[in-house]
TrEMBL record:
<dbReference type="InterPro" id="IPR011006">
    <property type="entry name" value="CheY-like_superfamily"/>
</dbReference>
<dbReference type="InterPro" id="IPR000160">
    <property type="entry name" value="GGDEF_dom"/>
</dbReference>
<dbReference type="InterPro" id="IPR050469">
    <property type="entry name" value="Diguanylate_Cyclase"/>
</dbReference>
<feature type="domain" description="Response regulatory">
    <location>
        <begin position="49"/>
        <end position="207"/>
    </location>
</feature>
<dbReference type="InterPro" id="IPR000014">
    <property type="entry name" value="PAS"/>
</dbReference>
<dbReference type="InterPro" id="IPR001789">
    <property type="entry name" value="Sig_transdc_resp-reg_receiver"/>
</dbReference>
<dbReference type="Pfam" id="PF00990">
    <property type="entry name" value="GGDEF"/>
</dbReference>
<dbReference type="InterPro" id="IPR029787">
    <property type="entry name" value="Nucleotide_cyclase"/>
</dbReference>
<dbReference type="Pfam" id="PF11849">
    <property type="entry name" value="DUF3369"/>
</dbReference>
<dbReference type="Pfam" id="PF13188">
    <property type="entry name" value="PAS_8"/>
</dbReference>
<protein>
    <recommendedName>
        <fullName>diguanylate cyclase</fullName>
        <ecNumber>2.7.7.65</ecNumber>
    </recommendedName>
</protein>
<dbReference type="GO" id="GO:0016787">
    <property type="term" value="F:hydrolase activity"/>
</dbReference>
<dbReference type="InterPro" id="IPR021800">
    <property type="entry name" value="DUF3369"/>
</dbReference>
<keyword id="KW-0378">Hydrolase</keyword>
<keyword id="KW-0597">Phosphoprotein</keyword>
<dbReference type="InterPro" id="IPR043128">
    <property type="entry name" value="Rev_trsase/Diguanyl_cyclase"/>
</dbReference>
<dbReference type="Pfam" id="PF00072">
    <property type="entry name" value="Response_reg"/>
</dbReference>
């Protein structure tokens, strides 16, 4: 079996001479050879592909001789030959852009040609290629339903292989193919236009908008349906007439971002661009267009379009519609950006991995003049986050802590941010809210707001501190002590270890108040707590338990260590020269936690030890051993 062959003819003197020695019996096939056909020179576009499918080589030779110089709309023909139905299926599968097939009906089988048609239309779903059936057996003509259902363009008997008839049906078929492809291309462009408009209106804020403009316009214009090649090159520039800079580019200008427009276009093109600015008009030539994105009546951005083929009227309409939609979106985004930039609340947009937008007030706080400058130095806010033990964002990626906020619970989240000086002492607290932005065919973009609550945070801490602090002495109060004692007992139960408490009060404090007055008494309490506070560990919990009574929680300390600390404090107090009074002493009671005891029993043991110190003459330290049980304390607990 012969293999399919690819034959290309060019309209030149060299190949215009006769190639085949035709027999006399074929002379009548050229009886109309004097009829004039279209003779435009071959253009830049590729040739129309024509496939000849026939098991008779002579039919191939005749068809090639008739059509070798054929040109339609500045394009010649490229021939593909197949000699059986199976070869034809292979070739159409490899070359889906074939415009026309001359197809023999009877080849290896009586219906081989019809099988090829069925495969093209049903299996390959190719509704574009034009098909002309040919047969040397009049009885093998296809039924009417086949012609209609399978979109067969013509049916010829082989004795009709005359030059004029072949050229006429070829012109009609290729013109039909061109029109179908044009309609399909226009439909595809309209779909892309609608889709691009959706995409543009889904882009949030100016910085993403400009890059999306070229992406979407390029997708509408650059695919040539015949050559599948990108023919358009685009530039999007700013609006500084004296110093135009390329924001983004495609095609020939793909690497031009950041360059001056005058560096990448010709002098004539630059003059045309400037004329658009000066007169606020659009200019369209055969292969170039200069138009604008406008914010109202003001030119906001310039769009330069260059095509190595002519810009069709259809593409001109698409460009105008697209730019009108883009300008509408641009005006809206400019309004939104103005509102956001003048909002004292910090606004950020992030895609889960990096920050894509910061409003002006946020950029100023962080010490940047533009989002581009920020993105060059930082990808996220991590550099400016103050990490604290309770920070919900600690050890989390940007997408993770944003996900926590978006999760939907009603909890309020606070972040602490450094400013441009990056000093922790100047960090401020912000209440942060985040919402996922609904974007067409995309997800994972967030709009985040930061409201300064530093003053409220300071007030909250102030009131929180007031709730757990004794106002006179500024040490913990009784409630806070019991909260800390409960935590320490739970820790000892879980991890084992020691825990002791020391309780003490001022001896004969009522006499101090009676003799010197309550102001002096308050002064003594303040001096005493300040004195004790500097002689205990930072991990120890020191609190005013009531009146002139105080208590110390000593984690990791046994009864011996606690009694030594109590004795040390007793001696310091006994020898300290208090203001306004001659002498102050204290009595101490010490106890250690025993597994199974309640916090109440632990405190009562220390209190009972303090009672023993008082009973034995005051200004001394008494302890309750771990093994010692206190019947009165137990009875008191049961009663309570």
């Amino acid at each position: 079996m012969c293999k399919a062959t690819l034959i290309c003819y060019h309209n030149s003197k060299e190949n215009s001479r006769e190639v085949y020695d035709m027999s006399d019996e074929l002379d009548d096939l050229f009886q109309d050879s004097d009829n004039k056909q279209e003779t435009l020179s071959a253009g830049a576009k590729g040739k129309w592909k024509v496939m000849i499918v026939d098991d008779e080589p002579g039919v191939h030779e005749v068809t090639l001789m008739i059509l070798k110089s054929f040109i339609f709309e500045d394009r010649g023909l490229e021939f593909i030959s197949a000699y059986s139905g199976s070869e034809a299926i292979q070739e159409i599968t490899k070359n889906p852009d074939i415009a026309l097939i001359f197809l023999d009906v009877v080849m290896e089988t009586d219906h081989a040609g019809l099988d090829v048609v069925k495969h093209i239309r049903e299996t390959l779903q190719n509704r574009f290629v034009r098909i002309i059936l040919r047969t040397g057996q009049p009885g093998s003509a296809p039924e009417e339903s086949v012609i209609i259902d399978y979109d067969i363009n013509d049916y010829k008997e082989k004795n009709e292989l005359q030059r004029t008839k072949i050229i006429t049906c070829t012109v009609a078929a290729i013109r039909s193919y061109r029109d179908i492809m044009t309609i399909n291309g226009n439909l595809h462009a309209l779909e892309k236009l609608v889709e691009s408009s959706k995409s543009l209106f889904d882009v949030n804020l100016i910085d993403s908008f400009f890059s999306e403009v070229l992406v979407q316009l390029n997708s509408i214009l650059t695919l040539d349906t015949d050559t599948a090649e990108e023919t358009y090159s685009l530039i999007l520039a700013d609006n500084r007439i004296d110093d135009l800079v390329v924001i983004s580019g495609t095609g020939l200008y793909e690497q031009s971002a950041g360059k001056r427009v005058g560096e990448v276009v010709s002098t004539g093109e630059l003059e045309m661009i400037k004329r658009v600015f000066e007169k606020n008009i659009d200019i369209y030539t055969e292969k170039q267009a200069v138009t604008c994105l406008r914010n109202g009546d003001d030119i906001r951005n310039l769009l330069f379009i260059d095509n190595r083929n002519n810009i069709s009227p259809w593409d001109t309409k698409l460009i105008k519609i697209f730019c009108a939609n883009a300008s509408l979106k641009l005006s809206r985004e400019m309004q939104v950006k103005t509102i956001l930039d003048n909002n004292p609340t910090f606004i950020m947009i992030a895609d889960g991995e990096s920050v894509t937008f910061l409003n002006k007030s946020f950029l100023n706080y962080l010490g940047f003049s533009s989002i581009e400058e920020f993105q060059c130095e930082c990808k996220t806010l991590n550099r400016f986050l103050v990490l604290k033990e309770e920070s919900f964002y600690k050890d989390k990626l940007l997408s993770e802590w944003l996900g926590v906020i978006v999760s939907g619970d009603s909890k309020e989240y606070i972040v602490h941010l450094l400013g441009k000086g990056e000093l922790k002492s100047e960090a401020r607290a912000y209440l942060v809210y985040a919402n996922e932005i609904p974007v067409h065919n995309k997800s994972g973009r967030y709009l985040i707001s930061f409201t300064d609550v530093s003053q409220m945070e300071m007030d909250r801490r102030k009131y929180q501190n007031m709730a757990c602090t004794d106002p006179l002495t500024s040490i913990y109060n009784r409630k806070k002590f019991k909260d800390e004692l409960k935590k320490e007992v739970e820790r000892v139960v879980r991890y084992k270890g020691h825990l002791a408490i020391i309780m003490f009060d001022i001896d004969h404090f009522k006499q101090v108040n009676d003799r010197y007055g309550h102001q002096v008494g308050d002064s003594v309490l303040q001096e005493l707590t300040a004195l004790v506070d500097v002689h205990i560990r930072s991990m120890d919990v020191f609190a005013r338990y009531g009146g002139e009574e105080f208590i110390i929680l000593a984690p990791g300390t046994n009864i011996e260590g606690a009694s030594k600390l109590a004795e040390k404090l007793r001696e310091i107090i006994d020898t300290y020269p208090f203001n306004h009074v001659e002498h102050v002493t204290c009595s101490f009671g010490v106890s250690e936690y025993v597994t199974g005891d309640s916090t109440y029993i632990l405190i009562q043991k220390a209190d009972y030890a303090l009672y023993i110190s008082k009973d034995k003459g005051r200004n001394r330290v008494s302890i309750i051993e771990k093994e010692q049980t206190l019947e009165p304390i137990a009875k008191m607990q049961i009663t309570t």
